[in-house]
Design brief:
It is built from no helices and five strands. It is 0% helix and 28% strand. The protein is mainly beta.
């Protein structure tokens, strides 16, 4: 996840597929793709002015280039070593 100010987040395409889920206190908001299920971004409960962005959802970034960030394959939670 990449952290950035929430007022700087703009969904450029695919917004029609996003669904939201609010947890517990209903402050944190998690956005998921209704087609594939990936969590695209979330608004934090503790810092609601900060948004966490799944960098795998940004076309211009190659998430594999971030070698110091642990990643998993999303199926069995083992770390991916590419």
């Amino acid at each position: 996840m990449l952290a950035c100010p929430i007022d700087e987040v703009h969904v450029e395409k695919g917004a029609e597929y996003l669904i939201r889920y609010k947890w517990n206190t209903e402050v944190a908001t998690h956005h998921f793709c209704s087609k594939c299920g990936i969590m695209t971004h979330h608004q934090r409960r503790t810092t609601p002015d900060i948004c966490g962005i799944n960098i795998g959802c940004i076309d211009e970034l190659d998430y594999r280039s971030f070698r110091d960030v642990p990643m998993n394959n999303g199926i069995d939670f083992t770390l991916v070593d590419e």
